[in-house]
Design goal:
single chain; alpha/beta; eight-stranded mixed β-sheet; 11 strands; globular
Length: 185
């Protein structure tokens, strides 16, 4: 059961599953990739941005420059432990929990992004995998925002949200396989 101040989105509903034919396309980088001091400098220069991934979110918090929204799943590919209290400054705004199976973009994750944009931001905790959350961020954030997501072993990709990026995301989602999912899926 969620703690006070934490909402949990229903896991019943629609989802879009990545078909094998789309995996290579989704693995491509859609914004410039930066690491180290250059990534920090660029992140600090942003006004409106969101993060998708545990390491990029933790780094933004360490730099004292909070994203409007962060999506995390408390896992990293390098198996580094991620402490839940690392994200406290964002969770204090608002925290939503959603289920999003690997290789899937659920309606509950897309809705959680929209809800947080409308209500001032916060943290989305994903049970499952957060990777496709970057699509929901680009889809819903206003033009001029930036979405930052981690690329293991390389750094962070910075995607400028504009009409072209939004249409690209919509095109990708249309290529996914729509499904109905229930609580046990």
């Amino acid at each position: 059961m969620p703690r006070a101040g934490t909402r949990s989105a229903s896991s019943d509903g629609r989802a879009w599953v990545v078909p094998e034919s789309l995996r290579a396309t989704l693995a491509e980088k859609y914004g410039p990739v930066y690491s180290g001091e250059e990534a920090d400098r660029r992140l600090l220069a942003l006004h409106l941005f969101a993060t998708c991934g545990d390491r990029v979110t933790r780094r933004a918090i360490e730099l004292g420059h909070l994203p409007l929204i962060a999506i995390v799943d408390y896992k990293t590919r390098r198996e580094e432990p991620v402490r839940r209290d690392s994200y406290r400054p964002l969770a204090e705004r608002q925290r939503l929990r959603v289920r999003n199976p690997p290789g899937t973009l659920t309606e509950s994750l897309r809705t959680a992004v929209k809800d947080l944009i409308a209500s001032g931001g916060g943290l989305i905790e994903v049970e499952g995998e957060e990777d496709l959350g970057s699509l929901a961020l680009v889809e819903s954030l206003p033009a001029g925002a930036t979405v930052i997501y981690g690329i293991p072993g390389e750094g962070a990709s910075f995607v400028q949200v504009d009409a072209i990026a939004k249409e690209h995301v919509r095109h990708l989602i249309r290529q996914m396989e729509p499904r109905r999912i229930g609580r046990g899926d």
